[in-house]
Amino acid sequence: MLKIDLHIHTIASGHAQNTILEFINQAKKLKMKVIGISDHGPGMTGDAISYGYFKTLDRMPEIINGIRVLRGIEANIINANGDLDVGDDIIKHLDYVMANVHTPSAYEDGGKEKNTEAFIKAIKSGKINIITHPTSTRPFETDLRQICVAACDNNVLLELNLSRLTKRMIKSDTIANIKTMIAIAKKYGKKIILGSDAHNIWELGDDSLLIPIKKELGLTDDLIINNYPQELFQLLKIEK
User: Fold this and answer.
1) Counting C-beta atoms within 10 Å of the first and last residue's C-beta, which end of the chain has fewer, N or C?
2) Residue 7 burial (CB < 10 Å; 0-12/13-18/19+)?
3) How far apart are CA 193 and CA 41, in angstroms?
4) Tell me: the pLDDT tens digits for 67-109?
5) Smallest Cα–Cα separation from 94: which of 116, 74, 64?
């Protein structure tokens, strides 16, 4: 069970099932320390969410029911320039920014090379703290190695997305891709972040599918930044 989980979607994302308070209460029940609210950015078309939602997240208390609650977003990379669907006026209200390409959104598939360039430009923008599920960017093909190296070079965390290990999400290349990501992080002396990608309270902090394959993946506890809250907060430039 994770003590820190920064990849959480609430009903505000339009396709999740629980409220912020329900996640907080579940985190307390699970004896977690920190959770992060990271609903999808407004560029994910078809889901009801507004700029105002993200602008007002910082009006919540930092600690609720004994749980440190961080305010984040899973933003959408929306074009070949690596631009996000939120600007600085939103980002200044948030503790951290995660990003990837999603569908449906404004992003148009440019093929493997251009898709990879879009990721790298987003990473180099200095606006992203975490690249979510870099091992799975379907339906947009990318060069995982180039993205991982760019993230390491720019102090952007790579996420091992726990939802991608579930029976409904795992693909034939999932394990191999995670191994590649971990190997590159090790080479560059970086840690990775685990994220549940929870869309309901029963998925929050759940790493049960990861535990039996950690050795196969080459993943040790010292490589997981969730185990080092002070280092994580420092990287995110948050006062603990």
Assistant:
1) C
2) buried
3) 20
4) 999 999 999 999 999 999 999 999 999 999 999 999 888 899 9
5) 74
